[in-house]
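Batch job 17 of 40 flagged for manual review because the log was empty.
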Amino acid sequence: LEPAGARPRSASWRDPSSGGRMEVEVAAEHGGDREGEVLIGHGAEARVFRTVFCGRPCVVKERVAKKYRHPMLEASLSKKRLNQEARCIVRCRKNGVAAPCVYHIDYVAKRMYMSLVEGTTLKAWLCGEPSDDQVAAVLKAVGACLAKLHDADVVHGDLTSSNILITQPSLEPCLIDFGLSYVSNLAEDKAVDLYVMERALQSTHTQKDLMDKTIVGYKEGSRRSQGVLSRLTDVQARGRKRVMVG
């Protein structure tokens, strides 16, 4: 047993996509201090807390343990998914995508410590009835952000207006919640990512042409937008057929 207050054993690894060392320190064994944490979000897969890490305000994403799984399988899957999420975040940040900085990963407690991004979700911002010019400018910036994401061959997996923060007062977008993200260079995967975003905007918000405004920024910001948007048309057609047939 390690004495109380001992420095946790840690390790780092190389990101094969960039050849450089990853910016994340990963603790092999560490017990987190839960004092002063404030729950700010809760979903099926994780809980999110606001706290302080090494004197810096941060958020903690704690994966919810699945009791029906064997403990060894649960530990293995949690470790794999934490690693995958962290790698995708680091890959995004290296390619200019606004995303939280990963400070620390605790495998035992299934927790990831990240920088705190001050802002409001795109969903809440749109519900605040901004002007048409503001909506067009912000969604164009969102599209440019998604273009950088896909040019880095990262598929978010859960692009909704709740997983995009709009920082104040600059109104710049920041992507969060990479729990379902993965690396892929397939236009099909990126097109499905955009389709998920389109359906989320249509089902949640009353403003018109939100996705069209987003696509404007995506076209301007991506070097490979033509192939992705061509595939998006096919994905949209399959989606409409599924809704029509049931």
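Reviewer: the log was empty due to a logging misconfiguration, but the result itself is present. The chain has six helices and twelve strands. Unflagging and moving on to job 18.
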